[in-house]
Description:
145 residues, five-stranded antiparallel beta sheet, extended
Amino acid sequence: MLHETGMVIDITVVNGEKTAIVECISKSACKSCSSNDNCGVGIVAKGLTDKSHKLSMPFKEGMEIDHSVELLIENKDIVKSSLIVYVIPLFLFIVTCTLTNLFFFNELAVIFASGVSLIAGTFIAKAISSKLYPANSLNKLISTK
Length: 145
């Protein structure tokens, strides 16, 4: 299970429902490695700042501004989401490349059709993921501290 701690920075009302804006700071794994002083990647990571990610989450009782919350994501959900996001567009891309190359023998047509299939695959993946993980199902991921 993946644990991520975030800070509630705002609570708003959207379409009659309370929504919390949670900020999570992602840190480079290279900063915590024991040999980061001797590694080129670790030295570069020290110079980079941590990234801030703002997530819009459904409000859960106990959430307050400037209080931390813990987001818990199960491994099966990570794998399922990764498969949806990567495999669907990639599969459409490969099938489109193959079929376009078989029928048109034109490299420009293959490139254009492949680009369109990647865009279509992205929208299909987004539609599937929003059906599998509606916003109200995210409440089970949030643990207030």
